[in-house]
Amino acid sequence: MNSRITNRIATGVFFACAALITLVLAGLLGYILYHGIAIINWDFLTSPSSSFRAGGGIGPQLFNSFYILLITMIITVPLGLGGGIYMAEYAKPGKLTSIIRTSIEVLASLPSIVLGMFGLLVFVNLTGWGYSILSGALTLTIFNLPIMVRECEDAIRAVPRDQREAGLALGTTHWHTIKKVLVPSAFPTILSGAILASGRVFGEAAALLFTAGLTTPRLDFGNWNPFSPDSPLNIFRPAETLAVHIWAVNSEGLIPDARAVADGASAVLIISVLLFNLIARALGRFIHKRLTASK
Amino acid sequence: MKSEHSMPTVTSASTRLIKKQKHNPERKGRYIVTTCALLIIIATAAIMIFLTQKGLQSFIGNGLSPLEFLTSANWHPISSGNGEPSYGALSFIFGSFAVTILAAIIAAPLGIGAAIFMTEIAPSWGKKVFQPIIELLVGIPSVVYGFIGLSVLVPFLRSSFGGLGFGLLAGMIVLAIMILPTVTSIATDTLHSLPKGLRDASAAIGATRWQTISRILIPAAMPGLLTAVVLGMARAFGEALAVQMVIGNATSIPNSLTEPAATLTTIITLNMGHTTFGSLENNVLWSLALILLLMSLLFIILIRFLSSRRKYE
Questions:
Q1: Is B59 in a helix, a strand, or coil?
Q2: Range A214-226 average pLDDT
Q3: Is the dihedral of CA A164, A169, A173, A176 positive or negative?
Q4: Contact residues on chain A for B239, CB-CB shorter than 8 A
Q5: Which of B40, B109, B211 is the closest to A3 by Cβ?
Q6: Distances from the Cα of A251 to the Cα of A112, B27, B155, B242, B249, angstroms
Q7: What is the pTM of this model?
Q8: I need a surface site. Which of A93, A165, A221, B286 has the fewest CB within 10 A?
Q9: Where are the transmembrane segments (chain A) (predicted)?
C-alpha cells in the first residue's frame, strides 16, 4: 500500500515537472506575442530606428538580420556539406578523424561571446575590415559550422545502403555516387537542418556585438550598388541586427520607448524563429512521407 | 588478318575509362571535401592560438600578476584617485560559477523529471507533445530570455524580495529556463536508450513504476543524465547577454542571492566596447575570455569522461 502511494506521488511530481515546462513556454510566447503584436505595424517594420527619440522602427535591423543570415548561409552550407561528406564518406578511423571530431566538439561548445571576441581579433582588427557584415557573417559561420557538418554527416549516413550500392553497381565512381546519389537523397534532410540552423543564427547576438557592430549607417534603399557605402548590400558596412538591437536598446539605449521597441522587436524575432522552425518541421514531415510512404 | 587490322584502334581499358588524369573529378572532389574538413581544424586551432596569445598578454606584456588576477576581488580598472588600478577577477569567476551551479540545481530535477514523464509515464503521447515544446524553447533567442527577465522577472523579484530585483537570483532563474531544454532533451535520449529488458524485469518482480524509475532506471542512466546536466551548465557558463541584462553588473562579490553581481561574460560584454584595444584594461578582458575558453574545454573533458562510463548506448 505504502509503495503504491509513493508511486502515485512520484507520478504526480513528474507530471508537474512536464506541466511546469509547458507553462513556462506558454507564458513566454504568450507574453511576447501579446505585448509585441500591438506594436508591430508596417511603419514599425520599415522605418529606421532612432537613437534618442521615441517612435523609431526596426527597418534596417530587420534587413541586416536577414542579410547577415543570407551571407552566413552562403558560406556555411557549402563548407558544412563538404565537411559532412568527408566525415561520412572519406574519414577513416584514425588520428586525423578524431582530431576533426574533437575540433567540431570544441567549436560547438565555445560560448558565442568567445567566438565574437575571436571575430573581433581576426576579422575586424587583423583584416582591417572593421565592424562589418562580412566580419559578422564569418564569425557566425564558425558558430554554425560544427552543427552544419554534423547535420550533413548524419543526413548522408542516413541514406539507405541500397541506394549507395546501386550507384556503385552502375559502375560510377565514388565521387560520382556521392554527387548524383547520396547528396540528392540527403538534400531534404540537409535543407531542413539548414533552416533550423538559420533560426539559431537569426537570434544570435553575443557573437555579433563586436563583429557586426552596434550601429547601422544611414541606408539608402534605392541604392543597390554593393560597393557604395550607403547601400544596404555593402558587406563592409557595420550592421546592427534585430537581436543585437533588442539588447542595445535595453542596456545602452537612450530612447524613451525602449520597452515598446524591444517588445515589438522580440515579437518579430520570435515569429521569425517560429516560422523557421515550422518550415523545417513541415518540410521534414513532407519528405518523410514522400520517402517512406507512411503516414 | 582481321585482328591485325583492328589492333591499333584498341586502347587499354584504363585510358578509355579515365580520360584525363589531370582533371580527375574523383580526386578533385576528394580534395575539396578534405579541405572543408581541414578548415574545421584550422578554425579551432586559430581560435585556441589567438585567444591564448591575446589572453596571456596582460600577464606577459603588462606584468599583471596571475595570482592577483585569480584571487583578488578588487576590480578597479580606472585608478580612482587613491592608488593604482587593480584587476582582481575573483568576483566574476565567483559569479559565473554561482549562477551556473544554481541554475543547474533548478534545471536538473525539472528537466530530468520532465524527461521521465516523457519516456516512462506517458510514452505514447508525452514525446509527441513535448518534443515540439522543447524545440521551441531551444529556439527562443537568448536576448529574448534576457528581455523578458528584465521586464517581468526583475520587477517581480523587486516587489517580492525588495532590493533592486537585479541579481544572482534573477540570473539563475533566467539561465535555468534557458538550459531546461538542453537538459530535458539529452536526458530523454538517455532514458530512451535504456534497454526495455530493464523495465520488464523490474515489473516482473513486482516493482511499482516509481521503484523501477528510482532504483533501476535512474542509476542505469546516471552517466547520461549527468552529461545532460553538464552540457546545460556549459551553456549557462558561456551565456552572456541574457545574464548581463538581469544580473545587475556589480563588480563585488554579492552577499545574498538578491544582490547584484557580475560574471565573466557580463563584464566582457559591458567593457569590450568601451576600452581601447591594446590597453591593459582591454587586455584583462581577453584574459577573462581565456578562462571561458579553458572552462569550455574542461566541460568537454568532463562530458567525455561521463560518456566513457555509459553502459547503454
A1: helix
A2: 77
A3: negative
A4: 111
A5: B211
A6: 19, 53, 16, 11, 11
A7: 0.88
A8: A93
A9: 12-34, 66-87, 99-123, 129-147, 181-202, 260-280
**How many Å from the N-terminal Cα to the C-terminal Cα in chain B?**
69
Q: Do A17 and B137 touch (CB under 8 A)?
A: no
* Ranges of each domain in chain A: 37-292
Q: Which residues of B touch A153 (CB under 8 A)?
A: none
Q: Which of A175, A209, A269 is nearest residue B26 as measured by Cβ atoms?
A: A175
CA distance A151 to chain B (A): 14
Chain A interface mutation, best of B33, B49, B106, highest count of A Cβ atoms under 10 Å: B33
- Do A113 and B130 count as a contact with CB atoms less than 8 A apart? no
Provide the grid cell at B232.
546545460
The answer to whether B40 contacts A145, with C-beta atoms less than 8 Å apart, is yes
Q: Which residue has the cell 520488464?
A: B200
Q: For residues B263 and B243, is the Cβ–Cβ distance under 8 A?
A: yes
- ipTM, 2 decimals? 0.88
Residues of B in contact with A89 (CB under 8 A): 33
Across the strands, what pairs with B248? Answer: B261
Q: Model confidence over A134-181: pLDDT tens digits? A: 999 999 999 999 999 999 999 999 888 888 888 888 888 888 888 888
CA distance to partner chain B, nearest, from residue A233 (Å) = 25
CA dihedral A27, A28, A29, A32 (to 10 degrees): 110
CB A243 within 8 A of CB A65: yes
Q: Say which CATH topology domain A37-292 has.
A: MetI-like fold (1.10.3720)
Q: Name the one residue in this structure whose C-alpha cell is 545502403.
A: A161
Length of chain A: 295
Inter-chain touch B37–A14, beta carbons under 8 Å: no
CA nearest to A28, candidates B104, B180, B240, B80: B180
